[in-house]
Amino acid sequence: MAMDEIIPPPEVDLPRETEDSERIIPSPDVEYLPRQTEDTERKLPSPEVDYLSRQNEDILEQKEEHGKTTELERKEKQLKEERHGEEHERPHEELGQGTKLETQCEEHKRLERQCEELERQRRKLERQGEELKRMKTITIVYEQFRQWIEDKASNSSSGVSFIEFNPSEVDDSVPKDQNHCLGRGGYGIVYKAKLRNETVAMKILNESSRQGEREFKQEIAILKRIRHQNLITLRGACSEKFALMYELLPNGTLEDRLINEKQRESFSWEERVRVATSICTALVFLHNAKPNPIAHGDLKPGNILFDDENICKLSDFGISRLLQQTNDTGTPNHITEVPKGSGPYMDPEFKNTGKLTPQSDVFALGIILLQLVTGQSATGLRKHIVDKLEGKKLEKMDTRKQKMILEKLQILDAQLKLDDTSIQDAVKMVSLGLRCSNSERKRRPSLEIEVWPEIESMNKSECLYGSDEVD
Predict the structure, then answer these.
(1) Which residues define the annotated binding site for ATP?
(2) Interval 18-62: pLDDT, tens
(3) Which domains does the chain have, with CATH numbers?
(4) How far apart are CA 317 and CA 244, in angstroms?
(5) pLDDT, tens digit, for every residue of 396-429?
(6) CA-CA distances (angstroms) from residue 186 to 211, 295, 317, 341, 462?
(7) Closest CA to 317 of 234, 407, 427, 402
(8) What residues are annotated to the active site?
């Protein structure tokens, strides 16, 4: 029954007060209340019950939240412990990795030190190999020189000594016939003359010459103390007349054979190779002279003469110099404020710095090698060949292609008729000539280590190089 349907109890007549009024009479309400309570408990919610219920629900929620919080705290604690464990283990792992990296670095450094040591040993062996090649070349050159000296000594008539001529002898020997004039140079006129029953080439200083006493004394100082089969022999001199007397070399100059069409036609490849070998041999001898190396300083075809056996000899040592060893570069040199030389044969570095070295002669040799192959003038020759080749590596081509390119580009002298072997040698000589005539001194090859052995290997004539006589 609903609350609003409750009917109030009927009015009841109460008895009058009597003696028994004190006797408790149950109120009708009492009888009613139990019925009402039963239904009320079952049917009607009480505010207190709602309050307790809600309170209970709050408690349950709090317990649930507390449980969740506890679970979160537990997980957080577990996570912290795991992190702490990782952090505790990480230094050990990092320490292990660090130790491994240090070991690898040490191993890398050790290998680098080994590589540096191997490279140092390689360079040392390379230098020793080059020094052995250099000494082998010098040994061969001096062995050839020794044999020449012995041959001279065995022939008493060829033994010569330096003679001091007097002025009257010079005056009497000067020919009046200009046909006896062998040539003219920067120093003076060269005559064919006869002195003390010997025919000589006599060079007398020209009064208008820029050369003079210094060049006169220099040539005597060098040629008086050295002899070599590829150097002109100085027979004597006259100090009062500044006259120099040489052995007579009747077969002209290398310049004649390169310029004169008829002479060039008969100038075979074998002869050209022998000329290159002879020039190179003479330079090796000069550059290794003791106590002072000698730089020719004016190497050119006009100063290379031929004797009656067509052996070529270097002449004109007027501007040659005795070189001094220096501590800064280790290269012997002579420094002058006024560099002298001959046009296209003059070392560009000597011209710019005034420092004359053996490499200055190597430059001039390079130009001459190019001329021996081409038969052309020295002026602009190197640039001409470089421009025509346009970077072509002739030495890496086969012989047929080498010959085709040399002829097509007109690098090879048209007067030369070469077989396959000679074509290969001509290519080698061009390559050597270009390297020797490099404008940078440090990029030129060593005369003893590279140039002389390469040229000597081309030589078809009998020689000591590689023979059993010299190891």
Answers:
(1) 203
(2) 444 445 445 444 444 444 444 444 444 556 656 666 766 777 777
(3) 163-247 (3.30.200.20), 254-458 (1.10.510.10)
(4) 11
(5) 888 889 988 988 888 999 999 898 889 999 999 9
(6) 7, 19, 12, 11, 37
(7) 234
(8) 298
